[in-house]
């Protein structure tokens, strides 16, 4: 088994583990965001009730509650933005995984001697190459979307 094949296999496993760890971290963060959303929702409901029911409260108190409510809305918007970024990252991870699998398949066809390739092999190689280009284009669209989003936030 040639050294370069072992190196490629090891690198593929390492990148797969990195993607897996990133996916787990993203999933944990999405769950944390969901919990925080629920907490913010509960706090918002309490503040709204206070504002409606305590109409004879001092103006300072009502201003404080209103400010707290606005802060909660701002925090929720920030979390929604983060959640959106994480969903894009999930899509990117899926496409990365798909690209690696296609790379591996394509490499197996390309390593085969041209004289040993059947017409089906050549057709399969072309199809895999076509799929690989589609995946790369999809990843490019996601990266452009992230860049546009980042620039709009600035």
UniProtKB/TrEMBL annotation:
PANTHER family: [F-ACTIN]-MONOOXYGENASE MICAL1, CALPONIN HOMOLOGY DOMAIN-CONTAINING PROTEIN DDB_G0272472-RELATED
Coiled-coil regions listed: 23-50
Compartment list: Membrane
Keyword Iron attached: no
Name recorded for this polypeptide: MICA1 monooxygenase
PROSITE patterns membership: BMERB
SMART domains: DUF3585
Encoding gene per record: Mical1
Pfam families in the record: bMERB_dom (PF12130)
UniProt KW keywords: Coiled coil, Membrane, Monooxygenase, Oxidoreductase
Annotated ranges, domain BMERB: 13-154
InterPro entries linked to this entry: bMERB_dom, F-actin_Monoox_Mical
Keyword match Oxidoreductase: yes
Alphabetized GO MF terms: monooxygenase activity
Biological classification of the source: Eukaryota, Metazoa, Chordata, Craniata, Vertebrata
